[in-house]
Each structure stands twice: as structure tokens, then as C-alpha cells.
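Schema walk-through. Below, the input block comes first and the output block second. Nothing else is stored per chain. Lengths vary across the set, and this one has 170 residues.
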Amino acid sequence: MAKTRDSRPPAARAAGHQAEAEKIAAELAAIAATGMVLPGTITQRRTRCGHPRCGCRADPPRLHGPYWQWTRKVAARTVCRWLSPEQQHDYQAWIDNDRRLRDLLARLEALGAAALEADPRGHRRPRATPPEPDRPPHNPVGTARLTCGQACDQGRFAQLKPKREDLAWP
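--- output ---
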């Protein structure tokens, strides 16, 4: 999908961005007026117990519940807590506030990115870089590539040991 440029003048684009930002600010103020935000999700669970003659083991099963579970991430770990039906009713609005807050933040970030892209000052041509000086061709054999980035301090064939009789030269 190709991007199309906004043909409006920069002042009109900025006014449109400002109006959208004000709408988002009003929604944020409404969330702040409720006072609470709770991350995570609340799910309804129905479970089986461990008793072999219980109705939850029948066919079809009559599961226990409903039980309400609040799940969230803390330090990259999933944390769960069981809630009463009254708690579920109270906290669901807080979780909805968290979702609205995240959506508004994403819209605000997208609006900022659009404003940056629409700014005519950001569409300058990059400066011409000076040409690099001529370098000899790269030869990966026998270079520091095999020495973990350290300079090679040995001769070309340092791994070969000289003969013992060559060491006894007078």
C-alpha cells in the first residue's frame, strides 16, 4: 500500500493534529476522573475437582464455577489471582480503563509520528558525503578475523616451529 502525501498546507495539517490531540486529551481526562486503571484481564473459569464421583467428572461434565481470575504480567511472569463476583464487577471497569488508555496512547503516538512526517523541515536532502579514500582490496585470509578482532602479532607462518638445528647457528 503506497503512502499518499497530505496536500494541505502545513498550518492546516498542524491544526488537524492539534484538534485530534485535544480529543485524545479529553478522553484521557475522563479516564483520570474515574481514578483507577488496572492492567491485565479478568476471565471466567470453570474447573474440575479431584473427587472421582463428583458431577464434574460425568459425561457431559457439570463443571464447578464460575470463578473469576485476574491475570497480569509482572516482571515478564504471569501472575494470577482469584476474585469474588463482587470484585469482578468492580474491577472490570478499571481493566476497561486500562485498555482505553493503551489505545489512546497508541493513537497519540501515531499522531506524533504523522506530525513529524508532515513537517516540511524534515524532508531535506542529506548532505553529500565525501568519497572514501582508496583502500586496498579486502583479504580475509590471514587477517585479524581469526584472532577474535585482535591484531596478529606473529609472523606469516608462526605456527611452524623452526628445526632444532636451525637454532644452533653460530
